[in-house]
């Protein structure tokens, strides 16, 4: 993951430095500056994403390709939760009485 900080948008809320102090520092007026080149270590991903998502003016952006998880395989009939659905047709099986 790689991030970018647009200092022209920053309003100095300081939320980024609170969540990820290893990647953001604040100047004397409270405006953020990026520490390093923006490359985020895998272990710090959650903290930096929290800073990115909590920035009230969206001054932090993620750059580069996003890696998505592979989609999960479809459910088989054995795993289908609809197989266990209680309906009028199978009410005798689950003990419903009127």
Automatic annotation (TrEMBL):
Ranges for region Disordered: 66-98
Domain of life according to the entry: Bacteria
Cofactor(s) in the UniProt record: [3Fe-4S] cluster
Key words, A-Z: 3Fe-4S, Electron transport, Iron, Iron-sulfur, Metal-binding, Transport
One Pfam family here: Fer4_15
GO molecular function, one term: 3 iron, 4 sulfur cluster binding
Record protein name field: Ferredoxin
């Amino acid at each position: 993951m790689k991030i970018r900080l647009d200092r022209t948008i920053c309003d100095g809320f300081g939320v980024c430095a609170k969540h990820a102090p290893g990647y953001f520092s604040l100047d004397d007026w409270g405006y953020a500056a990026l520490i390093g080149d923006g490359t985020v270590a895998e272990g710090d991903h959650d903290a930096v994403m929290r800073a990115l998502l909590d920035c009230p003016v969206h001054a932090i952006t993620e750059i580069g390709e996003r890696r998505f998880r592979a989609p999960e395989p479809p459910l088989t009939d054995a795993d289908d939760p609809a197989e266990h659905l209680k309906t009028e047709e199978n009410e005798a099986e689950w003990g419903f009485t009127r």
